[in-house]
Design brief:
By secondary structure, the protein is of the alpha/beta class. It has 2 domains: 175 residues, no CATH class; 55 residues. Helices cover 52% and strands 17% of the residues. It has 8 helices and 9 strands. Strand 7, helix 6 and strand 8 form a beta-alpha-beta unit. Helix 1 runs antiparallel to helix 3, helix 1 packs parallel to helix 4 and helix 3 packs antiparallel against helix 4. It is elongated, with a radius of gyration of 43 Å. The relative contact order is 0.11.
Length: 283
């Protein structure tokens, strides 16, 4: 019983070390169009996951049999490539695909080596830790550790690499910025329409202001009268009032001053001379 338990502990240690290496190992690669980072995310439906954090957009290809995602995150994009495309140039897609395939192959080889080293190393340490006289011999626990680590690597080597054609992607985007951006675009569209309507209304009003005087009847020969109010000590408006009156009757409907102090009263004397006659109503 004790011998079997020691072997199980060693096997579990190998599996734990292998899993830790699988989820933590990352590698960056440089392509002609930019740089990428490769990693594994277990616990999902098997897929090759291409993600661009800059625009929060990705494409997923179901080409992996292991329940894990092989993530390819685009970290940077070469400015020269962007400039060339913007100027009407083209990107050698076949060459980029070959570079990406080689980068994934290098990553997987390095990953399998790291998984084997982590799993076998932890298993060997546990094998030395649990050895005792009543337990299994050390060579058996060491053999169990190496066999289990080899089995893990073989399983990953068979199920993890993408198989078959990389086609029929599933596009996705997540994060709160996407709906906010869509709302901002919709709001901007509505604002533009509202601004256009307001501008049209202002233009119509301006046109009426320009055209309306020409449609009015001539006022020559008709009596003229000026109505003014709410002076509130604003002496700058007095010349305007005098020019508008030009000796015509003026009806001043109150509020020539604010508090009616003697100093303010001196300001009311000038409006009294603006009209002939002037009718003043207290506010």
């Amino acid at each position: 019983m004790r011998r079997g338990l020691a072997t199980v502990v060693v096997v579990l240690a190998v599996l734990g070390g292998s899993y830790a290496a699988l989820v933590s190992f990352r590698q960056e690669a440089r392509l002609s169009v930019g740089s990428i980072r490769l990693s594994i995310s277990p616990g999902h439906k098997g897929a090759l996951d291409l993600y661009v954090p800059l625009v929060d957009w990705g494409a997923r290809f179901e080409a992996i049999r292991l329940p894990a995602r092989l993530r390819v995150d685009v970290l940077t994009v070469d400015r020269r490539v962007v400039t060339r495309v913007a100027q009407g140039g083209a990107v050698d897609v076949a060459s980029v695909r070959t570079e990406a395939r080689d980068a994934i192959a290098r990553y997987l080889r390095t990953l399998l080596a790291a998984v084997f080293a982590a799993g076998a190393g932890l298993g060997i340490l546990v094998a030395f830790a649990v050895r005792n006289r009543s337990g299994p011999r050390l060579r058996y626990t060491l053999l169990s550790a190496l066999t289990t680590a080899t089995g893990v690597v073989v399983t990953l080597g068979v199920l993890l690499p993408p198989r078959g054609p990389i086609e029929q992607p599933q596009y996705y985007a997540y994060g709160p910025d996407i709906p906010r951006a869509l709302q901002a675009v919709a709001a901007a569209t509505r604002s533009t329409k509202a601004l256009d309507g307001e501008l049209n209304a202002q233009l119509v009003g301006l046109a009426q202001l320009v055209l309306a005087p020409g449609r009015r009847l001539e006022l020559d020969g008709f009596p003229r009268a000026i109505v003014a109010s709410d002076l509130h000590n604003n002496v700058l408006t007095l010349p305007v009032l005098e020019r508008a009156a030009r000796g015509a009757p003026v009806l001043f409907a109150g509020d020539a001053t604010d508090r009616g102090t003697p100093l303010e009263a001196t300001l009311t004397r000038r409006p009294l001379k603006a009209g002939k006659p002037l009718v003043f109503v207290t506010g």
